[in-house]
């Protein structure tokens, strides 16, 4: 027994180290993904028996106008949330100096990322408040009419995304600040000699070197956009009339809220979200794989 | 350095920059300043004892009860998995690694129904431990990714020479690698602390009522009940935000090191 262990230590040891992690991760993450997929073919209220209904949930989705609204909002989130990447780059360029006290400025700029989205959501709902929120105080000061952003179907999603961009920009900024730290100074000098300045320098010399930071910024922003839930729940609860829902939120409503415990239908929405996400995960994994093989 | 260092620019640009810096901070924090003002203005109400009627302290205690075991658990599991994936070469290595990475990137809401069911059947629904178990499992994905890359960067010769000396794999892990992993553990613990403290989604999916609810979910329910006491809720939200903010300012270096892993080649 002991000698068997001695001889095969290198083969067995990794699996002993991996066992607890794999067990937990499988039980709570990997299996539930497949359970969700499986559940999407059933009708289930969470308590009684499950009834197999084939693809009926998916057929219902196609005609569900709230699903379409949620899907459309997800696309808006994805596109607009990515503004955090250039905004973060801009903030990083602005703060990448060595003047006195700059470290404190950097920390303060980063600050919104550290606080909970619940607090961000509360803060912005007060900021948007039509009667005495700061935004409308400012608008009225400049002679505009006040608007209740979170009560207008046409504006609500944009208002929530703006709140989400606040911490996300801070996140991208910190990624770029770290990236800028390691930009090769010789290349910048070489660029300066070749008379590259401002935008041209940024585009041709700096940005190529910031590629790893850009990649991570895009990845975390896309994931953040698809996971958006907290702000919507805090700020509007999906309203007005469901106009600010996204897939993750609609799924939650369908499965758990008073709108009915339709677990199977919720799972079908989850599968749609998963498919959208798979495209991104595949890209990320492909890149990791390439790096592993190349490096 | 890019952009051009400000001290090398024209005096007018330098002056402009000195004005723009504080101004930009004010604009950036405008929404927050408004809240701070509201809660300061309501200082009188807070002192009048109104404020302590909210079960906020209870929620904050729950947050600690959830966050601290999660940090410990995720660190333990991921130092094991990170070691296994970082040090050993075996066929399934990359596959297991990718499983952790991919799982970590999914929109976690899709796990909602099965995880809630699982917690119910384990008797962990609406308990602090139910949240802890899920958070440990989910965070293990990200932490494994982090630990594995960190361990890959350690000098491999250390492990090789220990093996030649006949040191067992467990002793290598415990006496050689774990002491070297301290910076990674510091970075991860601040990050995980913040992530879990700020979690809202799982708090509302896996708890119900005040017994196990952390402060994020608690604040939202207060916001509903205390709708006419906006300033109280705003004061509450500032208090709720304090632990991660303190953590960040105290351990900034580790926090940023953790967050920006991979941002530099």
Explain what you see.
The complex is a heterodimer of chains A (295) and B (265). Chain A is mainly α and 295 residues long. Helix content of chain A is 74%, strand content 1%. Chain A is built from 14 helices and 2 strands; from the N terminus they run αββααααααααααααα. Chain A is flat and about 70 Å long. Chain B has 265 residues and is mostly helical. Chain B has 2 domains: 6-38; 57-260, Orthogonal Bundle (MetI-like fold), CATH 1.10.3720. Helices cover 75% and strands 0% of the residues of chain B. Chain B has helices at 11-28, 30-41, 43-47, 56-87, 93-105, 112-121, 128-152, 156-164, 169-180, 182-197, 201-206, 215-225, 230-250, 252-259. The longest helix of chain B is centred in the N-terminal third of the chain and has 32 residues, at 56-87. At the A-B interface, helix 1, helix 5, helix 6, helix 8 and helix 10 of A face helix 1, helix 2, helix 4, helix 5 and helix 6 of B.
CATH architectural type of the largest domain in chain B: Orthogonal Bundle
In this structure, how is the largest beta sheet of chain A organized? 2 strands, antiparallel
Q: What percentage of amino acids of chain B are in beta strands?
A: under 5%
The chain-level structural class of chain A is mainly alpha
Strand order of the largest sheet of chain A: 1-2
The count of helical stretches of chain A stands at: 14
Instruction: Tell me what portion of residues of chain A adopts beta-strand conformation.
Output: under 5%
Please indicate the count of domains of chain B: 2
Helix and strand sequence of chain B: HHHHHHHHHHHHHH
- Characterize the quaternary organization of these chains: heterodimer
Q: What is the overall shape of chain A?
A: flat
In this structure, how is the largest beta sheet of chain B organized?
none
Mean pLDDT of chain B: 86
Could you say which overall geometry of chain B the principal axes of the C-alpha atoms support? flat
CATH topology of the largest domain in chain B: MetI-like fold
Largest interface: A-B, 98 and 97 residues
| Rounded mean pLDDT score of chain A | 89
Strand element count of chain B: 0
Decide which structural class fits the backbone of chain B: mainly alpha
């Amino acid at each position: 027994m002991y000698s068997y262990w001695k001889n095969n230590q290198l083969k067995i040891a990794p699996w002993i180290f991996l066992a607890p992690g794999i067990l937990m991760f499988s039980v709570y993450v990997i299996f539930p993904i497949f359970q969700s997929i499986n559940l999407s073919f059933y009708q289930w209220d969470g308590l009684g028996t499950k009834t197999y209904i084939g693809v009926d949930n998916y057929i219902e989705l196609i005609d569900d106008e709230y699903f379409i609204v949620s899907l459309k909002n997800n696309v808006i989130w994805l596109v607009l949330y990515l503004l955090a990447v250039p905004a973060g780059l801009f903030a990083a360029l602005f703060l990448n100096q060595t003047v006195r006290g700059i470290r404190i400025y950097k920390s303060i700029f980063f600050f919104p990322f550290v606080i909970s989205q619940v607090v961000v959501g509360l803060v912005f709902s007060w900021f948007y408040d039509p009667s005495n929120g700061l935004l409308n105080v400012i608008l009225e000061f400049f002679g505009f009419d006040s608007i209740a952003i979170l009560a207008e179907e046409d504006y609500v999603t944009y208002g929530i995304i703006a709140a989400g961009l606040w911490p996300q920009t801070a996140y991208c900024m910190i990624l770029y600040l770290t990236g800028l730290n390691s930009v090769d100074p010789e290349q910048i000098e070489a660029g300066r000699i070749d008379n590259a300045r401002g935008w041209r320098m940024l585009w041709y010399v700096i940005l190529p070197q910031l590629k790893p930071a850009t990649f991570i910024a895009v990845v975390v922003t896309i994931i953040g956009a698809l996971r958006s839930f907290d702000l919507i729940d805090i700020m509007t609860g999906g309203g007005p009339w469901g106009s600010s829902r996204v897939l993750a939120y609609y799924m939650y409503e369908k499965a758990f809220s008073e709108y009915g415990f339709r677990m199977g239908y919720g799972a079908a929405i989850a599968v749609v979200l998963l498919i959208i996400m798979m495209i991104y995960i595949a890209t990320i994994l492909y890149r990791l794989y390439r790096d592993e093989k190349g490096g | 350095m890019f952009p051009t260092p400000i001290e090398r620019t024209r005096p007018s640009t330098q002056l402009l920059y000195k004005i723009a810096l504080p101004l930009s901070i004010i604009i950036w924090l405008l929404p927050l300043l408004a809240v701070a003002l509201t809660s300061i203005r309501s200082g009188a109400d807070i002192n009048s004892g109104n404020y302590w009627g909210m079960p906020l302290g209870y929620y904050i205690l729950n947050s600690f009860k959830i966050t601290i075991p999660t940090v410990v658990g995720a660190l333990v599991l991921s130092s094991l998995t990170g070691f296994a994936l970082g040090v050993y070469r075996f066929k399934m290595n990359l596959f297991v690694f990718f499983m952790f990475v991919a799982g970590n990137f999914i929109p976690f809401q899709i796990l909602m129904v099965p995880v809630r069911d699982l917690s119910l059947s384990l008797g962990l629904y609406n308990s602090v431990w139910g949240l802890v178990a899920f958070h440990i499992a989910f965070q293990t994905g990200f932490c494994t990714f982090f630990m594995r890359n960190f361990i890959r960067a350690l000098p491999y010769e250390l492990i090789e020479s220990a093996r030649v000396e006949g040191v067992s794999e467990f002793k290598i892990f415990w006496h050689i690698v774990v002491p070297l992993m301290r910076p990674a553990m510091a970075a991860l613990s601040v990050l995980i602390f913040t992530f879990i403290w700020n979690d809202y989604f799982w708090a509302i999916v896996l708890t119900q009522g005040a017994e196990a609810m952390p402060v994020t979910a608690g604040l939202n329910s207060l916001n509903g009940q205390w709708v006419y006491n906006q300033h109280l809720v705003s004061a509450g939200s500032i208090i709720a935000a304090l632990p991660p903010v303190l953590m960040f300012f105290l351990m900034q270096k580790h926090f940023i090191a953790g967050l920006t892993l991979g941002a530099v080649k």
